[in-house]
UniProtKB/TrEMBL annotation:
Catalysed reaction equations from the record: O-phospho-L-seryl-[protein] + H2O = L-seryl-[protein] + phosphate; O-phospho-L-threonyl-[protein] + H2O = L-threonyl-[protein] + phosphate
Matches recorded under SUPFAM superfamilies: Metallo-dependent phosphatases (SSF56300), TPR-like (SSF48452)
Alphabetic keyword roster: Cytoplasm, Endoplasmic reticulum, Hydrolase, Manganese, Membrane, Metal-binding, Nucleus, Protein phosphatase, Repeat, TPR repeat, Transmembrane, Transmembrane helix
Origin: domain of life: Eukaryota
Keyword Signal found: no
Descriptive protein name: Serine/threonine-protein phosphatase 5
Native source species: Thlaspi arvense
Enzymatic class: hydrolase
GO molecular function: metal ion binding; protein serine/threonine phosphatase activity
Subcellular locations according to the entry: Cytoplasm; Endoplasmic reticulum membrane; Nucleus membrane; Nucleus speckle
Active site residues of this protein: H343
Parts of the chain that traverse the membrane: 171-204
Amino acid sequence: METKNENSDVSRAEEMKNQANEAFKGHKYSHAIDLYTQAIELNGNNAVYWANRAFAHTKLEEYGSAILDASKAIEIDSRYSKGYYRRGAAYLAMGKFKDALKDFQQVKRISPNDPDATRKLRECEKAVMKMKFEEAISVPVSERRSVAESIDFHTIGNKPRSSSMPTKTALAAVVAAVMVVAVRGFATIEILMVLVSVVLGTFWWGGFSEVEPQYSGARIEGEEITLDFVKKMMEDFKDQKTLHKRYAYQIVLQTREILLALPSLVDINVPNGKHFTVCGDVHGQFYDLMNIFELNGLPSEENPYLFNGDFVDRGSFSVEIILTLFAFKCMSPSSIYLARGNHESKSMNKIYGFEGEVRSKLSEKFVDLFAEVFCYLPLAHVINGKIFVVHGGLFSVDGVKLSDIRAIDRFCEPPEEGLMCELLWSDPQPLPGRGPSKRGVGLSFGGDVTKRFLEDNNLDLVVRSHEVKDEGYEVDHDGKLITVFSAPNYCDQMGNKGAFIRFEAPDMKPNIVTFSAVPHPDVKPMAYANNFLRMFN
């Protein structure tokens, strides 16, 4: 009888696995995980089930869970190459190239004649060699100089101002001074000062470069970024035109100065009768950002926004996204607020496409400039003293106060532990208490953790982003936590809706608006990503 029941469980487990495979093919990864879990509960000694569930976790960016499942598959069958393959892919996605290399070396040992395994091992070896080289030539943090401070956007352009004008003007100043000396017999301090000022000033002006006349794109007149410029720039971006590097530098450098003056936790006040919009991840999906503005209006003093991190990576229009958001910030700082996400970091940008896109559309120097400016982004916001908005989530310890967040020294790459890491990486879980992170970074926290944090800080609600949701949002923890995600049909394959939240003072009740993806030019997501990572997408 027991054997019969065991056979029945094995048969049902296979049925669950087959259903899970179909869900996976339909991009229903969460449902696939549930079905693989049922198969594992019926027959936990099948390495295939664990490896398949690991693959589904990878698709949801749950790399920590993928590594655990793949390791279990290897434990069950140490010769099962897909176990190493899935774990190596998850390590790779986390930027842990050395760990990934070990697993792909094992895949090659198990399947020496597999050309796909050979190709991926070779690419992984290249990634590790590049990482070692970059580590070898890197400058210690204490010795690094600001990239921004070495750039003067006024000098960017192929057409210098006429060299004859400042030269003639300077010569005229010298002649005038000489004539005064000839008439009066001496040179006063005042005359010498005027002479020096004229000469230096004219050569300074002459050192500026003009944007070449054949450039037909958006132009910034002088130092001020205007709404007309931003509108023209967005229209150019829609037509896949590029912005002149001079203006791109000006936008990023002016944004840097604004962000540098902000605290790590920014307080936002919404007056009675006014509204405020919070958006989640947009991940380089520029045309969906334009749709948000179509649905909800452009950022302005009367229509302010908070974009809650992960502006870049994965989507292949990240440069257009970041320049648009930064330009609005320069135009009117209180019209748009920007928070740091886990993808506003060197390690993520190197893997998931932003670095390659910046290098392709702008220049190598912009790669370093964006990395510097991302470190100035605030980590969290509080709206009207009641709504806490953060990209990731809460903390591994109780008792964290808003003052602790304000005190974080954020001007660095995100660490792998501590408050800053958890703000950017953590996720809610349905069970109370805390658990390991399904991503492999940060942690998972339950409704009781959310409740205590809100009570400790006299807050009403946590709004966070960081996770794709089928409807574009999800309400958890007895209504005390809302996830909002604003990149519909994420990576052109998830089929999810996007969402944003509108709050209106004084009651500040969340009004959630959902929307679908819009068409975009035929440039695939991850088009600029790390070569090795694209093999798995």
